[in-house]
From TrEMBL:
<feature type="region of interest" description="Disordered">
    <location>
        <begin position="595"/>
        <end position="622"/>
    </location>
</feature>
<dbReference type="GO" id="GO:0071558">
    <property type="term" value="F:histone H3K27me2/H3K27me3 demethylase activity"/>
</dbReference>
<protein>
    <recommendedName>
        <fullName>[histone H3]-trimethyl-L-lysine(27) demethylase</fullName>
        <ecNumber>1.14.11.68</ecNumber>
    </recommendedName>
</protein>
<keyword id="KW-0479">Metal-binding</keyword>
<keyword id="KW-0677">Repeat</keyword>
<feature type="region of interest" description="Disordered">
    <location>
        <begin position="725"/>
        <end position="762"/>
    </location>
</feature>
<dbReference type="InterPro" id="IPR003347">
    <property type="entry name" value="JmjC_dom"/>
</dbReference>
<feature type="compositionally biased region" description="Polar residues">
    <location>
        <begin position="516"/>
        <end position="530"/>
    </location>
</feature>
<keyword id="KW-0223">Dioxygenase</keyword>
<dbReference type="InterPro" id="IPR048560">
    <property type="entry name" value="KDM6A_B-like_GATAL"/>
</dbReference>
<feature type="compositionally biased region" description="Basic and acidic residues">
    <location>
        <begin position="728"/>
        <end position="745"/>
    </location>
</feature>
<feature type="region of interest" description="Disordered">
    <location>
        <begin position="328"/>
        <end position="427"/>
    </location>
</feature>
<dbReference type="GO" id="GO:0003007">
    <property type="term" value="P:heart morphogenesis"/>
</dbReference>
<feature type="repeat" description="TPR">
    <location>
        <begin position="243"/>
        <end position="276"/>
    </location>
</feature>
<dbReference type="InterPro" id="IPR051630">
    <property type="entry name" value="Corepressor-Demethylase"/>
</dbReference>
<feature type="compositionally biased region" description="Polar residues">
    <location>
        <begin position="342"/>
        <end position="406"/>
    </location>
</feature>
<dbReference type="Pfam" id="PF21322">
    <property type="entry name" value="KDM6_C-hel"/>
</dbReference>
Amino acid sequence: AVRCYESLILKAEGKVESDFFCQLGHFNLLLEDYPKALSAYQRYYSLQSDYWKNAAFLYGLGLVYFHYNAFQWAIKAFQEVLYVDPSFCRAKEIHLRLGLMFKVNTDYESSLKHFQLALVDCNPCTLSNAEIQFHIAHLYETQRKYHSAKEAYEQLLQAENLSVQVKATVLQQLGWMHHTVDLLGDKATKESFAIQYLQKSLEADPNSGQSWYFLGRCYSSIGKVQDAFISYRQSIDKSEASADTWCSIGVLYQQQNQPMDALQAYICAVQLDHGHAAAWMDLGTLYESCNQPQDAIKCYLNASRSKNCSNTSALAARIKYLQGLHKGQSSHLAGPNGERPLSSTGPSQHLQAAGSGIQNQNGHPSLPSNSVTQGAALNHLSSHTATSGGQQGITLTKESKPSGNTLMVPETSRHSGETPNSTANVEGLPNHVHQVMADAVCSPSHGDSKSPGLLSSDNPQLSALLMGKANNNVGPGTCDKVNNIHPTVHTKTDNSVASSPSSAISTATPSPKSTEQTTTNSVTSLNSPHSGLHTINGEGMEESQSPIKTDLLLVSNKPSPQIIPSMSVSIYPSSAEVLKACRNLGKNGLSNSSVLLDKCPPPRPPSSPYPPLPKDKLNPPTPSIYLENKRDAFFPPLHQFCTNPNNPVTVIRGLAGALKLDLGLFSTKTLVEANNEHIVEVRTQLLQPADENWDPTGTKKIWHCESNRSHTTIAKYAQYQASSFQESLREENEKRSHHKDHSDNESTSSDNSGKRRKGPFKTIKFGTNIDLSDDKKWKLQLHELTKLPAFVRVVSAGNLLSHVGHTILGMNTVQLYMKVPGSRTPGHQENNNFCSVNINIGPGDCEWFVVPEGYWGVLNDFCEKNNLNFLMGSWWPNLEDLYEANVPVYRFIQRPGDLVWINAGTVHWVQAIGWCNNIAWNVGPLTACQYKLAVERYEWNKLQSVKSIVPMVHLSWNMARNIKVSDPKLFEMIKYCLLRTLKQCQTLREALIAAGKEIIWHGRTKEEPAHYCSICEVEVFDLLFVTNESNSRKTYIVHCQDCARKSSGNLENFVVLEQYKMEDLMQVYDQFTLVSEINM
């Protein structure tokens, strides 16, 4: 077929139908000729302006990107497939791969969602449901949700027909969790369970070197030295070259006071992996304990040069200290058992062989000694690979690798509880497990740094675990610069077995044609020597210029499509004509249910506004209005000024004073008196300077913002807020007295303050999202807010959110925030790009950072580069990055009584300077700009598989019922939304009736919320698909049509409930007309 197409293209002499190139790409993909497939897809892309309508093309392109580990681009291609065709026949495969890629990128919430979407789909895909369930359980573990993980693993063990490989790995995972996680019981019970699970795992798979290794670690922790040695020996026999195992053996020998044996073991470890920082550090401490400081210095130097050594400063200090000592002076520092000859400045996070060289084996979580530098390939994917926790099924990629070992491995971060018997540890020396990257980005070479979720290719059968395949030929396949995970049909022989758990994702690549399904059972090769892949830049590929890069540039440089239709003529068909046109249009009425256009391209973030602003314009003055009296507050131009799209933010100064608002009603004291047991969501954060965001060690600036969630009550948080203030007063008094004593030494104090800024940082708690919607509990507070001008009120006729018809907590209701200095609201745009109102109650100030809506695409790009989810992640922009990208930042102080108006789509982040409370809510001005941005975000959310909290279809129909519109642009957009949904409802009705499916009248109750699919969370309007069981129980768990068909192809398990009579919708549609301002 390929030869046929190639000859046709040659004969056509340039006048070729674009579809030929698409088909050629599909066939080359099936033949695993990725360079040619990419080249053909490129040609199709360049020739076909509406390429995005072809879901099969996007799917094939996504598979090629996936093969090259270009995950950022693969994710975009796959998301676009689901957007243009939610019922695509390979949707389950797409959700699986999206789950794997998001897992690598440490976006665990998105990963979990896609795995769950794959699990409910009854169609076939590369992995079995049991293997997908394993990923879900492992995600819980990665997120430190240990009880959920344990429950999920145990539930998986109960599954029927569970493959031996999956069973062995689940048991291995449970064993390692019990060894490392304190929450699972007392030490004796945990170790007992850990040993039982690992023994059962070895019964299922006696050839797993990883399980033997873990068993050795467990025996070592309870003092069964002989059993530990036997287990390590078995591990060496099964997995041969494992630097981790030899390092652990060295620690065990050192504990037994056998320095020569320990020396040999450490040497074995560093010979196997010269970059094994832990082994070098342990070897250094061994030399120190034997009074050989010069040799120790050499070892520490090697450790500090290792790519895994995340904190070289402490090592450098130790080296400097040793160099300054006389040779004889160091001997008294080390105890007879080789205890760590280093002084401790705080509780150590380091575990013995794990990089501290401490003797107690209990805490030795070995280092993933082969963590890959950015863009580099995994060099040790041979049979000694001992991967335990990592990304099941996916390895490190250029996109997913953070620089430095900064992400904590949840499974091992608890190891600090297993304290070594050394008398002193060193704070700051990198523990090679604790500071390893999250499993998603670790080299699979040394798994015990991670939990055993990643399969270990020390056992050839295990390396193909999730494929259920076994092969004894494991080759040390490496790839020059790319860790390619092949979505391939692997038909080659010899060293073709995946030498890493990536085989878990292997894929028999199906035909990208949506009408075909090709399946094979072959295992994919990861980094196999004959993969034919050389670099991500395209060297060795069919075209000399990088096919990947070229294609990416092509995609990114296409002009963004106009999303909202610009209707020059406001003539719409009547509802009767719409319905007539919908007759017999087929079954998939809800597919591609974009509110915007019949055939609209997937939404894309805007490119940075052009021309770029000069550097002196990047700190613009914040638009501010100063109010002196009530009349000023109700002056109409104030409303116009705030809603003007040219003003991304407006600060209304002195509002509370002008309106005589009683802000004391929202003070902490009053809140406690009113409802002291009211629930408060708490975010635990690090206290940092407002314009900076450092990693927890204070060594580098990052975008990820630590913000862990818990809950408390208003009374308890008030107590914390007060004690925090008193503690600050105490510290201030101490500083003053200290300053008097050292008033002549200013430079010292400034040096100290500089060091304080870079960690370790103090932990603070921020009380957020406190719901004040109950007008019985908060009657006085809510009544006070009715004094505000209509355009900023919580409820008003001109507020779109007042027409939703039901409560959306925090949007059309008030939320309260209780803060201590440093409390952060990370970067975000408001839900569905609505405007927001925020009033500072005081007594302290808040600092705001604001970026205009047009630059959100730039911030989205920064989030992608930093492996953060723009919509759902927690991020704090690095101002230096923004200024370098010519992004303007408004920066201002909000004082007590000031109201901040955030305009539609504005990006912002806020930090409390003092102790204060704030109240906030959203409003939707009745403008074309607000509606347009809300609908654009509705579509972007759909592309990103994120729920839109504002149901825009439901809202648009309510607006048509309740509001007279005189703005032609706003009218056009609302009318078009009505037209789209009317057509979809009628088309779906026709299809269901034609298929003999009964539609049952259900109706709507007053204030009934809009409905969302319980599976994919898209809005479902009018026709609700409910399972028979849910209908009979009257629980009404709603599905969209696409999710209903995925779980039951002919919908036999579903009933269809109708909420609106078609005649009613037709009437609303026909009666919604543009009115002149005179008639309003």
